[in-house]
Input
Amino acid sequence: MKNKIARTDYPVAKIAEDTYMISDFGIANCYLLVGEEKALLIDCGLGIGDLKGAVRKITDKPIIVVCTHGHVDHASGDGQFDEIFVHEKDCGRNYRFQTSYTLRKLFLIASKGVVDKTITLKDLQKYKKRPTVTAIKDGHAFDLGGRNVKVRHLQGHTLGSITLIDDKSKIAFIGDNVSPSTWLFLPHASYVDEWIVSAREIRALADDYSIYWGHEKGLLSKELINTDIKYGEEILAKYKRNRLLFYIRFYPRNDRVNGSVVFRSGRVRRKRK
Output
């Protein structure tokens, strides 16, 4: 199949000086941070159209691409770039599966109620080459020239979820680690007791930074972060041990607006020696 690079009309919003939120046609948010020498693209979406072309409308500086986590809707636009940075715990077999064309296709079909109605399967790119996936760890920093973006490994939504902290804009980009409906039930997610440690760190960051997540309008309120943490604490109080029978629980209810935590009953507490 011939690689089709087409649409560059991604919705773009400027959220701070030299800082842009690029919607992947409703699927997820990508964020572009422009420094004096380089630009950092945080997440690269599902691989719809020509994301690189959309970035080039904003800046002609060399582009560094980093993923907040290795899920299909955040990392699958990687084929337009030579290198992509991902935390070491989200690399390898999991990354290859998440960014496979088959999963991307299924995800787009399942996103019918979310994605822009003008998007079709023909807009999904099938790349001839894949980038070099470079593993990073907690403490990594991206020097953009006059702008230094720090990496904080805060597992939860995935084992390799990271937060990117930008002192210039005073924004912390957290991926999907806290959200109106925090998902901890998917394969490769952390236990609830591990996630809540990360959530508390994000809440502490919110005292000094605006918190942007990976979907919808981006900006999260302190109140919603506090709500998710409260629900996590209630889960830990009610589940003193992991349940043998596997089921997915929406706590306290299936609420994708006001805050909820979705978890697996068998993965509440990590067994420690």
